[in-house]
Amino acid sequence: MPPLLLLTQLQSLTTLTLIELHAKDMIPLLKQLPHLSYLNIHNHCKHSKALITTVLKKKTLKTFIFKSLTAGLELPLTTQNTSNIEHLSVQMGSDSLGVLLCHLPKLRYLNIDLSNPCSFKNAMSDIPIMSCITKLKLEIHHFPISFVNQLFKSVPNLQYLHFIGMTSDKKCIDPFQWANLLSSMIGYLNRIKLNLHCWYLIREIPDCTEVIQKFRKNKFIQQLDIQIYHPLLFGESVSLRIMANHKYPI
Predict the structure, then answer these.
(1) Res 133 pLDDT > 60
(2) How many domains does the chain have?
(3) Per its UniProt entry, which superkingdom is the organism in (predicted)?
(4) Which residue range forms the structural domain that includes residue 69?
(5) How far apart are CA 246 and CA 124, in angstroms?
(6) Nearest-angstrom CA–CA distance, 72 and 3
């Protein structure tokens, strides 16, 4: 194919998926696509902040999917521009989350995987208010409930919540913590899906039956149809499962 014809076809692209390319090869390609609205990067190689800066500067881009954003990403980003991205699906570390979200004021749907080991200490103070987000899917491991509390406060207009996680924070089996987490959302949350595994040493939870009864008797928890299930024993550890799949009547 003649180079000029190839370039013309590239410039008309609106949808692009890139697999296993280096950042240095993706950047010049993305700069040649003035009409790109959908970008899916599936890459576990080292990334640079120059690549993310290039993506954020594409004003036509509405959907951005990125696997394994954590590897080699240097923050803060150099761009001061905000993006028009409305749909973000990404796997990354919590320490980079706030910086990236600050550049995405029009985000409506956030699907984020924070399952890689990371520190949540700095992330809790960096998350911006995201008033446009209506759908949030979150997969997160080894989290403190304080981080989730901060994240929920940053999405005041959330309508759909899908939360998958693993934790050893004992506050997660306290029904009053869930009441505090979700009470501000009750007026507009249309759907809630929970699938949480809570792992503890048996000596830390001496009476699982009492924990379960307190959880099930809480009126707020009953209203949300959140269920806590009997523990499974694994040697010296115990696992409690919290689940919900509740749709509010319109």
Answers:
(1) yes
(2) 1
(3) Eukaryota
(4) 3-247
(5) 28
(6) 33
- Token pair of 227, please? 């269920």
Amino acid of residue 76: P
Q: Which of 136, 203, 128 is nearest to 165 (CA)?
A: 136
On whether the CB atoms of residues 194 and 170 are closer than 8 A, the answer is no
Query: What is the pTM assigned to this prediction?
Result: 0.86
- The three state secondary structure string of the chain is CCHHHHHHHHHCCCEEEEECCCHHHHHHHHCCCCCCCEEEEECCCCCCHHHHHHHHCCCCCCEEEEECCCCCCCCCCCCCCCCCCCEEEEECCHHHHHHHHCCCCCCCEEEEEECCCCCCCCHHHCCCCCCCCCEEEEEEECCCHHHHHHHHHCCCCCCEEEEEEEECCHHHHCHHHHHHHHHHHCCCCCEEEEEEEEEEEHHHCCCHHHHHHHHHHCHHHHHHCCEEEEEEEECCEEEEEEEEEEECCC
Tell me how far apart the 2 most distant CA atoms of the chain are, in Å: 74
Task: Specify the CATH number for the domain of residue 209.
Answer: 3.80.10
Token pair 């700069």: residue = 31
Q: How far apart are CA 213 and CA 134, in angstroms?
A: 33
